[in-house]
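Section 3.1: Structural characterization of target chains.
Under the original work plan, the team committed to producing a structural model for every single-chain target entering the pipeline before any wet-lab resources were allocated. The record below documents one such target. The sequence was received from the expression subgroup and is listed exactly as submitted; it comprises 287 residues.
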Amino acid sequence: MSAAKIVIVGSANLDLVAACESLPAPGETVTGASYAEYPGGKGANQTLAARRLGAEVSMVARVGTDANAEKALALLRADGVDLSRIIEDENAPTGVALIAVDAAGENMIVVASGANAHLEPRDVAGAGPADAVLCQLEVPLGAIEAAATIDTGLFAINLAPAMPVPAELLERADLLIANEAEAEFYGDALYRGSGLVAVTLGGEGAILYREGQEVARMPVYAVPVIDTVGAGDTFCGALAVALAEGMEDGAALRFASAAGALAVTREGAQPSLPWREEVEAFLKDKA
């Protein structure tokens, strides 16, 4: 089987991560943290996830002309992602995410979008054809609406972070992905189209719906949790790859859930993303 061709339209950031014993309450200062930098951004994370899971991936994004740009793209470049559609923005810095992670793997994140906020529809034009196009909401809606016009077999949106989205864009999507809080934000609007809707439920697993009816459900895999940053993005990239390859709904959800489970067992967003052979071995072990 030939590799699925996927275009991802989204954000590329540099993650600045402080690992601490406990997360601060409002107004509290927590000391004694360790510090690390990792490539990140929902778009770039999902891009690398899809690439490591066997897809041929092209990313459409904007970065600055600063030193953080190369750091943000380093793992994508190393793993053979097509970066020919990355635009260098001379008027904005590369996006950064300020992340605190506690000893239990829970996190708090503040994103400074930088160049991501300047992605335009013209940047997206001509990015296809592809077997799937995957977007998130860390870039302007105009770019996502342009992505919906790419010649593709599957148009998918990860509805994160939650924000108002035109009803026609939700209904156009072949796949919508949301966590429990995001699903609550969108309510019934999530289920008005004819495409699939994946809702992740944290420790309760994930459910796949079509036209409001459950078509598949996966309980969470029990694994040691080191860092949850990037797990949701891994799930999104994996589900897009699985469906683009033609897996049936239940198998696709199982594949995505396994990939997401492996991602929480390591530190960092992109460094934690699993390879295809790891996911397949994990699934074989759980069979």
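The mean pLDDT is 94.
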